[in-house]
């Protein structure tokens, strides 16, 4: 059982380190996620864990706590619509405004175990005409080292590949290896994975033509969401696109973006010329 004072500390710790908001009704969630960690590091109880975190005597344990509380739910072509919209409207519009020598840069800002970046890579491999021969760089970032290791390996179990993939996609872009299915080297080469905390400065990431930040902002409070969105706006090309999750919005949170009409979940710069917005409807 976690004492109230320790629970309050864990909530503050997670907010400071990851932006995660832990409300008063999440005692069971916190306990269920941290008990395996107590066993792993032979820590007798939650009170001792709190002491370790307060003293900063074991950074590896502090990182493990953040990773334990990170939600890593992901699946291939999740929600479908964003990927269909990307293929039908967003990528053609971006290519029409760029030279053939331009490298299209796409950022998956909460890549988790890699299903989202690999979905984009599969789509581009299946339809190379979408980029008109341009080089594409996909950057997948996540706060968790553990999930990034899985993403780089590109190995998924039978349950995971059945979520979002057709049989044709599975056989074309994966190789069976024992009980696992592994992404083919062609797709792996299209993606660079980096450990990254969305609370950290974005400057080193460079400028992107398209940012997918889906199903992660829902775990942050409004000020944190506003800060992340404002900083993302500075990393997005003037005519670029931001895609958020179905339960997320920038409206009323960040005035740097406005929704793109007729494209659910997609946003453009507020100051984007009306002709640019109109061309993408």
UniProtKB/TrEMBL annotation:
Keywords on record: Methyltransferase, S-adenosyl-L-methionine, Transferase
Pfam families: CheR, CheR_N
Catalytic activity as recorded in UniProt: L-glutamyl-[protein] + S-adenosyl-L-methionine = [protein]-L-glutamate 5-O-methyl ester + S-adenosyl-L-homocysteine
Ranges where the CheR-type methyltransferase domain occurs: 1-274
InterPro entries (alphabetical): Bact_Chemotaxis_MeTrfase, CheR_C, CheR_MeTrfase, CheR_N, CheR_N_sf, SAM-dependent_MTases_sf
SUPFAM superfamilies from the UniProt entry: Chemotaxis receptor methyltransferase CheR, N-terminal domain (SSF47757), S-adenosyl-L-methionine-dependent methyltransferases (SSF53335)
Annotated GO MF terms: methyltransferase activity
GO-annotated biological processes: methylation
EC number per UniProt: 2.1.1.80
UniProt protein name: protein-glutamate O-methyltransferase
Source organism (scientific name): Xanthobacter aminoxidans
